[in-house]
């Protein structure tokens, strides 16, 4: 037992297991964590210090502006003017509080605003149902979200006089309502369309493949702003005179097709990552091409490209703010028009408006990103390869 | 490292005349109906002639082992039988159905023919049980509960019923291959194709898979196995086929094949794999 390696006899049999020993202090514990993660090398230590310095420089003024010096209530610009209140003024949240209904609904008639509220509730229900992975009857949830919910939303928001719901023209819609409608339609339409295009691009039929390639390359080759202008200005030229497409639907279709082209390439990347053996395994069992794709290939391919899909969703969500340039009053546009209100002319109002917009977009995008991460981890824990 | 030496009995062609089935099998098979018939089958990959005038008749219940050097076309041959590869000339008839471009017939044949691959080709996103029930549910329209009962029966047969809820990635190679066999059996195939089922396995796992295959053979399954496990060939095969350069060079009972190979190429090949 005491024999070292030098004196080990030629024939040797160990009879006892070496008992596990506790790790030394520098291998586990908070000190070890610090050393491993923040100060593992001189370069890393320098970066840690620089990052710390930036936090020290940036965080206090930001906090002072957004929280400490901020004005939380008030009726008009006087609440946010330093010469009136007599101390330095940070963010003018009173402005946001005063305009919040405009930011949420745009010019949607005040007496009808319960309709967008019901829409928000229906949307929250559908999104929650689909995103909660252990929810009961998720198939029903999908049917609700992709069929019942869009129909109900359309009836609710634009109104059907026969049902006692007054028509509300889309020119009155605005704010977060429009931003959510546009991005929801874009997201819901672009994924299935993108999957179809990706499959088409890998099809063995030359005509289908050619069509998909042309479609994808066309939309990817044109800037979104151009698409929106074209949808707005040129589409009516191609349609018969008595047919007019709603001014909100035009950019909606443009955005959906635009993001479908990007989605197609993301999905194609996932399809290419699936080994050929998977299709062969499915074929040998007699599964039809449709079942092979739906049950074997696509679930795996989509799982691989979750980061790419969410990336597309996030950028689509933010790109919806471009619809403001074709005259749609989305959330950004409502802030733009509210900030010039003379009743609220105060030095920090503009900054407050933009800070609020940033917060809104950040909450949604960060939420999507974290949710995707959670899904990825959860799927990975089940099936490590 | 040490484990590899333990599995030697499974791979060594130990000569045991009691295990050689050919004496009884000749009479058993003579009257059996034809399960697979290949007539002058030819296939090219581009300009490369992979299969050259291959003729082969497999009777129901017959066990055939196909061996040969790599690139000799043995995998391609059995992959043509369930149309994973397309042949360009000749006739292939499986269970009375001729393979043509008719997709319906191809699906029909694939339902009758199970296949086990070198790299298992299990579906990693589905549990072991779901792997086994997928095809019965979607192809045979079997109710889920029934499909699960069938799957559990076959998983028990390959001795891994307790792994049913796991994902393939959590199993060892040998276990995965046994799941793959169970998955094929769930479709109650009449013919089983094995494409080098043990080549990707760690040595200590070869035996468990071969044992499963021997069990299948004992039950009278029609089997075509591309394998270099000569011990297996000796134990269960009715016929051993040697392929080279896309042709069947020699076909004989395992007894005669190993004791007295006729063709020079066969002798050379055997001398290289049987040390």
From TrEMBL, chain A:
Domain ABC transmembrane type-1 as annotated: residue spans: 176-362
Membrane topology classification: Multi-pass membrane protein
Compartments in which it is found: Cell inner membrane; Cell membrane
Primary location: membrane
Keywords, in A-Z order: Cell membrane, Membrane, Transmembrane, Transmembrane helix, Transport
Family listed: Belongs to the binding-protein-dependent transport system permease family. HisMQ subfamily.
Name recorded for this polypeptide: Inner membrane amino-acid ABC transporter permease protein YhdY
Organism: Methylobacterium crusticola
Gene: yhdY_1
From TrEMBL, chain B:
Domain ABC transporter: from-to ranges: 36-270
InterPro entries linked to this entry: AAA+_ATPase, ABC_ATPase_HisP-typ, ABC_transporter-like_ATP-bd, ABC_transporter-like_CS, MetN_ABC_transporter-like, P-loop_NTPase
Pfam family name, one: ABC_tran
ATP-binding is among the record's keywords: yes
UniProt cross-references to PROSITE patterns, sorted A to Z: ABC_TRANSPORTER_1, ABC_TRANSPORTER_2
PANTHER family: AMINO ACID IMPORT ATP-BINDING PROTEIN (PTHR43166), PHOSPHONATES IMPORT ATP-BINDING PROTEIN PHNC (PTHR43166:SF4)
Similarity comment text for this entry: Belongs to the ABC transporter superfamily.
Annotated protein name in UniProt: Glutamine transport ATP-binding protein GlnQ
Protein encoded by which gene: glnQ_1
């Amino acid at each position: 037992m005491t024999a070292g390696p030098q004196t080990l006899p030629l024939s040797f049999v160990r009879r006892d297991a070496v008992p596990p020993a506790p790790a030394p202090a520098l291998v586990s514990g908070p000190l070890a964590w610090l050393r491993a993660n923040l100060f593992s090398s001189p370069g890393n230590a320098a970066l840690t210090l620089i990052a710390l310095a930036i936090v020290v420089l940036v965080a206090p003024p930001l906090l002072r502006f957004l929280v400490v010096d901020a004005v939380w209530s008030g009726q008009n610009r006087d609440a946010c003017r330093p010469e009136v209140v007599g101390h330095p003024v940070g963010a003018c949240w009173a402005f946001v509080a005063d305009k919040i209904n405009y930011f949420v609904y745009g010019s949607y008639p005040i007496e009808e605003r319960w309709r967008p509220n019901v829409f928000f509730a229906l949307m929250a229900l559908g999104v929650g149902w689909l995103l909660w992975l252990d929810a009961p009857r998720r198939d029903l949830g999908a049917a609700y979200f992709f069929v019942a919910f869009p129909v109900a939303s359309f009836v609710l928001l634009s109104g059907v006089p026969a049902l006692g719901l007054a028509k509300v023209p889309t020119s009155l819609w605005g704010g977060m309502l429009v931003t959510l409608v546009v991005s929801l339609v874009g997201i819901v339409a672009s994924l299935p369309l993108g999957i179809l295009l990706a499959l088409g691009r890998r099809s063995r039929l030359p005509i289908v493949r050619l069509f998909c390639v042309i479609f994808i390359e066309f939309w990817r080759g044109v800037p979104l702003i151009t698409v929106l202008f074209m949808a707005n200005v040129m589409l009516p030229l191609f349609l018969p005179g008595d047919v007019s497409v709603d001014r909100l639907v035009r950019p909606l279709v443009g955005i959906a097709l635009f993001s479908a082209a990007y989605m197609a390439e993301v999905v194609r990347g996932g399809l290419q990552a699936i080994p050929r053996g998977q299709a062969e395994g499915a074929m040998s069992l007699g599964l039809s091409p449709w079942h092979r794709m739906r049950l074997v290939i696509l679930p795996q391919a989509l799982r691989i490209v979750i980061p790419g899909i969410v990336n597309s969703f996030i950028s689509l969500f933010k790109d919806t703010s471009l619809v403001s340039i074709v005259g749609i009053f989305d959330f950004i546009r409502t802030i733009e028009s509210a900030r010039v209100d003379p009743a609220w002319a105060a030095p920090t109002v503009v900054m407050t408006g933009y800070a609020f917009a940033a917060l809104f977009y950040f909450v949604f995008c960060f939420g999507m990103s974290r949710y995707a991460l959670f899904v990825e981890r959860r799927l990975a824990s089940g099936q490590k390869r | 490292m040490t484990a590899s030496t333990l599995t030697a009995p499974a791979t060594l062609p130990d000569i045991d005349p009691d295990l050689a089935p050919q004496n009884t099998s000749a009479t058993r098979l003579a009257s059996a109906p034809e399960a697979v018939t290949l007539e002058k089958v030819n296939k090219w990959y581009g300009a490369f002639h992979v299969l050259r005038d291959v003729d082969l008749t497999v009777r129901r219940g017959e066990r055939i082992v196909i061996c040969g050097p790599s690139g000799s076309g043995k995998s391609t041959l059995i992959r043509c039988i369930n149309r994973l590869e397309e042949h360009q000339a000749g006739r292939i008839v499986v269970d009375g159905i001729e393979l043509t471009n008719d997709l319906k017939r191809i699906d029909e044949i694939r339902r009758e023919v199970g296949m086990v691959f070198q790299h298992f080709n299990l579906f990693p996103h589905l549990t072991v049980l779901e792997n086994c029930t997928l095809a019965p549910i979607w192809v045979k329209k079997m109710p889920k509960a029934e499909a699960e009962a069938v799957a559990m029966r076959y998983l028990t047969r390959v001795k891994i019923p307790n792994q049913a809820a796991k994902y393939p990635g959590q199993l060892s190679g040998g276990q995965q291959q046994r799941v793959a066999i169970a998955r094929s059996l769930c479709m109650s195939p009449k013919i089983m194709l094995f494409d080098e089922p043990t080549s990707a396995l760690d040595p200590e796992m070869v035996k468990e898979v071969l044992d499963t295959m021997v069990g299948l053979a004992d039950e009278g399954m029609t089997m075509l196995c591309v394998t270099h496990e000569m011990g297996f060939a000796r134990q269960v095969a009715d016929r051993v086929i040697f392929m080279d350069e896309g042709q069947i060079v020699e076909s004989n009972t395992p007894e005669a094949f190993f004791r007295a190979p006729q063709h020079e190429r066969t002798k050379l090949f055997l001398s290289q794999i049987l040390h």
